[in-house]
């Protein structure tokens, strides 16, 4: 039987080279049946047709992948506002305990002086936040959360941050110029201490936490000075110890979550050491508050009972914070711990009611 060679049908025209690459030829070996062993093989090259190309290359529109979509850059004003931490401004209300605990200052004049003190420390603390972020921007880029801060992420330049510091400094000077230096010196000392903190003291174990707590004492002293009143010693110790407790709790959380790599001062802490410090400071906080309540003449007479009951709220608040810290593994942000925890908010509301009742009884009930 004669061998036969099968010829493939002509291949369809290939698309232009600009629209699709040339197809790869495929070699097929075909032979007729019964071919003598000596007959040469027939090798036919059959081009493989490309799949349907759909619309022509001239009319086809290519859609960019979703990853190529560029997110609009946030407004510079929003980034500058984030740089001065408005969520942390509530800390500056540490200047008002004396005004809240003495009804003699419940007047327009007294509240105006307290508002001035809060404003001064809000400006001072905003300057400290910007300067601290400037000094930490390289280290913050390595942190999983802090790398999103405006300076660390590069959304705000160094020049813009320094300009913001200059504007805040001018406002602070203008505010302090309205009062004598004997009133605003705590704000000046706060700036000086925190500048040293940003330049290196924050890397010194223990000193880093104590400086943070000392800043709240300066706020409290500012509130006393602006009202021309002496500083209640037990209340000052209570403010210092509770702020030190929150600072130590934050460092304990950092040791658990990220170790000591991000914050150099953490190399001087261990979990066991921090736990001992927390126990000591918690006891000091409770004792100093009870001594303040017992020694304060504003809580004598008919005001004594509600003031005494407020000590149970103080103890419960400390216990709840320790529960959040040790059981719930919280404590990363003291502000969130105190103001976003529903149990702490309810306890604080009851605490405020008892102290308010004590002050009203002292003022209006003989």
Top-tier CATH class of the largest domain: Mainly Alpha
Report the count of strand segments.
2
Task: Spell out the CATH superfamily of the largest domain.
Answer: UbiA prenyltransferase
The share of residues in extended strands comes to under 5%
Mean pLDDT, all residues: 80
Spatial extent as radius of gyration = 36 Å
> What is the N-to-C order of secondary-structure elements (H for helix, E for strand)?
EEHHHHHHHHHHHH
Integer tally of domains: 2
Largest sheet: 2 strands, antiparallel
- Summing up helix and strand content along with how strands pair, one would put the structural category as mainly alpha
- Low-pLDDT residue intervals, each spanning 5 or more residues: 1-8, 16-21, 25-72
User: Based on CA inertia axes, which overall geometry fits?
Assistant: globular
The N- to C-terminal Cα distance equals: 133 Å
Determine the CATH topology of the largest domain.
Tetracycline Repressor, domain 2
Helix content: 55-70%
Number of helices: 12
In what order do the strands lie side by side in the largest sheet? 1-2
CATH architecture of the largest domain: Orthogonal Bundle
């Amino acid at each position: 039987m004669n061998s036969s060679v099968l010829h493939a049908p002509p291949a369809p025209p290939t698309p232009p080279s600009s629209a699709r690459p040339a197809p790869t030829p495929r070699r097929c070996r075909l032979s007729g049946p019964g071919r003598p062993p000596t007959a040469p093989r027939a090798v036919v090259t059959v081009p493989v047709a490309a799949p349907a190309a759909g619309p022509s290359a001239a009319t086809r529109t290519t859609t960019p992948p979703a990853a190529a979509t560029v997110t609009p850059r946030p407004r510079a004003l929003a980034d500058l506002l984030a740089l001065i931490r408005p969520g942390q401004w509530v800390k500056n209300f540490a200047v008002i305990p004396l005004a809240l605990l003495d009804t003699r200052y419940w007047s327009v004049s007294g509240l105006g002086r307290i508002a001035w003190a809060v404003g001064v420390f809000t400006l001072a603390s905003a300057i400290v936040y910007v300067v601290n972020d400037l000094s930490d921007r390289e280290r913050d880029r390595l942190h999983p959360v802090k790398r999103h801060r405006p300076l660390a992420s590069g959304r705000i330049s160094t020049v813009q941050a320094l300009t913001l510091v200059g504007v805040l400094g001018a406002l602070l000077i203008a505010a302090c110029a309205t009062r004598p230096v004997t009133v605003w010196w705590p704000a000046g000392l706060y700036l000086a201490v925190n500048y040293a903190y940003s330049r290196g003291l924050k890397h010194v174990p223990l000193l880093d936490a104590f400086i943070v707590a000392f800043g709240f004492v300066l706020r409290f002293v500012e509130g006393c000075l602006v009202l021309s009143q002496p500083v209640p010693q037990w209340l000052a110790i209570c403010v210092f110890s509770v702020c030190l407790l929150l600072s130590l709790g934050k460092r304990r959380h950092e040791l658990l979550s990220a170790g000591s790599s991000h914050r150099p001062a953490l190399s001087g802490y261990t979990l066991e050491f921090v736990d001992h410090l927390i126990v000591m400071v918690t006891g000091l906080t409770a004792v100093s508050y009870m001594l303040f309540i017992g020694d304060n003449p504003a809580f004598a007479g008919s005001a004594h009972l509600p003031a005494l009951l407020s000590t149970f709220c103080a103890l419960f608040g400390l216990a709840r914070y320790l529960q959040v810290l040790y059981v719930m593994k919280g404590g990363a942000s003291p502000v969130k711990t105190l103001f976003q925890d529903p149990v702490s908010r309810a306890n604080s509301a009851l605490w405020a009611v008892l102290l308010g009742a004590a002050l009203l009884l002292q003022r209006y009930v003989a």
